[in-house]
Design brief:
The protein is mainly alpha-helical. It is built from three helices and two strands; from the N terminus they run ββααα. The protein has a domain at about 1-45: Orthogonal Bundle (Arc Repressor Mutant, subunit A). It has a two-stranded antiparallel sheet with strand order 1-2. A hairpin with a 4-residue loop joins β1 and β2. The longest helix is centred in the first third of the chain and has 9 residues, at about 10-20. InterPro entries: BFD-associated_ferredoxin, BFD-like_2Fe2S-bd_dom, BFD-like_2Fe2S-bd_dom_sf. GO terms for molecular function: 2 iron, 2 sulfur cluster binding; metal ion binding. This is Bacterioferritin-associated ferredoxin.
Length: about 90
């Protein structure tokens, strides 16, 4: 089913964005462009957000990313046997 006819955004796309972490209408507008034209679909789109009537997400979760871990030893050969040149960052 189309949620936003103006931008051809489907229910499946909205659910995928919410499952990917969208928690507000602003998030959906940024990710998909929903409710950025005439705005008629805004109320329907909000129903798919966490806590909404059509939500598949039970709660809002804060996503955290692990800190980058530097590679300890880059002097050896690549695992696949091909030489990979290491370029130093400026």
């Amino acid at each position: 089913m189309y949620v936003c006819v103006c931008n051809a955004i489907t229910e499946r796309q909205v659910r995928a964005a919410v499952d990917g972490g969208a928690a507000t209408l602003d998030d959906l507008q940024f990710e998909l462009g929903v409710a950025t034209c005439c705005g008629t679909c805004a109320a329907t789109a909000v129903e798919y957000l966490p806590g909404g009537r059509c939500s598949s997400v039970c709660e809002v979760r804060t996503l955290t990313h692990a800190a980058a871990v530097p590679i300890a030893d880059q002097s050896g050969a690549a695992a696949n046997g091909f030489p990979i040149p290491v370029v130093a960052a400026a």
